Amino acid sequence: MKIKAFLATAGAAALLASGALAQQTGPDDDNLVVNGEIDIVTDAPAPEHLEYVRTIYSGWRFRSDETQALQMDDFDNPAFIFVDQARDVWNAEIGTNGESCAACHEEPESMRGLRAELPHWNEEKGEVYTAEMYINDCRTERMGLEPWGWDSGDMKNMTALIASVSRGLPINVATDGPVKEAWEKGKEIYYTRFGQLELACANCHEDNYGRMIRADHLSQGQTNGFPVYRLKQAGLVSKHNRFRGCIRDTRAETFSVGSPEFVALELYVASRGNGLMVEGPAVRN
Amino acid sequence: MADNVKPRVRAPRSTAAGETHTLKTLISHPMESGQRKDSDGNTIPRSIIHRFTCEYDGEMVIDVTMEPAISTNPYFEFEAKLPGPGEFVFTWYDDDGSVYTETATVEAA
C-alpha cells in the first residue's frame, strides 16, 4: 500500500510537471543576426500550399540560447572549418587537365542565390536537380574526376560553402511546372506513415512542433539551415542524411541517400520553407 | 600526422593602452584520444595538440596544457589587457612534433 500511495503521488507530480512543460511550447522570440550584419528572418507566413500551418519557423528558433549563439558569429560556428576547407578545394587545380572550380565559376560568391532555389528543374537533364547533382556533374563531365559520394566529407563541405554565400536570401523553390510531379511525390512521402512506429514526417514536424519529444524540442523540420553542423555528430549533416535518420527512427527501412524519393522529399520540404531565409551552414543539436 | 590542421584567430586590430580585449582561437584538429579502437580492434594511436600558448611581445598571456579528453577542433576564448600596440604570437604544439604558429599585429587606436 505504501508503494501504491507513493506511486500515486509520483504520478500526480509527473502530471503537474508535464503541465508546466506544456506551457513552454513553441519557438522563442529571439532575432538572428549573423556576424552583426546579415539579418535573417526566422519566421514567415506559411506558403499557400500548406493547409495546417499558419507560420513557418526556422529550426534556429527552437534551439537553446547557447546553440543559437554559435550560429551568430562565423568564428564560433564550427561549420566554417569545413567551409574553409571547401574554399581550398574550390581553388585547387584538381581536374585531369588542371581545371578548378574557380577557373569557370571564379569566386564562390558567384553562386549567391543558387541555394535559395534548389532543388529545381534541370532543363538539359530533364530531372529535378540538387546541389550535390550539379557538383558531381561538374566533376565528371567537366573535370574528368570520379563523383563524390552524396554524403562524403568533400561533398558536404562544398554544399556548405555554396549555402554560405546565399545566407540572408529568401528560400524560393518552385512547386509547379516541370517539378510538379516530383513535388507531389515528396508531399505523399511527407504524409505517409512509415515504420513500426507508424510515424509520418507530419506527425512530429507539423502536428507537434514546439512540443518536447523526450528531451528534444521539436522544430518544424525546415531545411533552410542545411547542411547543418550537428553538435551531436561534431560534423556537417546533409538533408538526405537527416531524412534517413528520421525514417530510421520510425523503425522503417529507409530510402537511400541520393535516391529519387529523397530528392522529391527534399524538394517538397524545401517548398514548405518558402519565405524563410538561407541560414546554412547552421548549428543544431 | 593530422591532416587539414588550420589555426584561426580573432584578435583586435587596434588598442588603447590598458584596454582589455577578448581573443578567440580555434584550430582544426582531430584530437585523437588514444582510447579508441579501429574496426579490427587495434588501438588508434593518440594524436592531440598537447600545448597552446599565446604571447604578446614576448610576454606570456596564456599557457595551456591540453589533455586527451578535449574534443576535436579545440577552441579557446580568453581576455588580455594590452599595454599598447604590439604583436600576438599564438602557438599550438602537436604530439607528432608539428608546431603551428599564427600571428596578429595590434596597432595603436
Q: Give me the count of strands of chain B.
A: 8
Please give the order of strands in the largest beta sheet of chain A. Answer: 10-9-11
* Order of strands across the main sheet of chain B: 2-8-7-4-5
Mean pLDDT of chain B: 91
Number of strands of chain A: 11
Radius of gyration of chain A: 21 Å
Tell me the fraction of residues in β-strands of chain A, as a range.
5-15%
Kindly report the greatest chain-chain contact and the residue count on each side: A-B, 7 and 11 residues
* Unreliable runs of chain A: 1-23
Bin the helical content of chain A. 25-40%
Strand content of chain B: over 45%
Task: Give the helices and strands of chain B as they follow along the chain.
Answer: EEEEEEEE
Oligomer: heterodimer
Description of the structure:
- The complex is a heterodimer of chains A (285) and B (109).
- With 285 residues, chain A is α+β, with helices and mostly antiparallel strands.
- Chain A has eleven helices and eleven strands.
- The radius of gyration of chain A is 21 Å and the shape is globular.
- Chain B has strands spanning 6-10, 14-15, 19-28, 49-56, 59-65, 75-82, 86-94, 99-108.
- Chain B has a five-stranded mixed sheet, with no helix packed on it.
- The mean pLDDT of chain B is 91.
- The interface between A and B is small, with 7 and 11 residues.
Short description:
Chain A is of the alpha+beta class and 285 residues long. Chain A is 40% helix and 11% strand. Chain B starts with 5 loop residues before the first strand and ends with a strand.
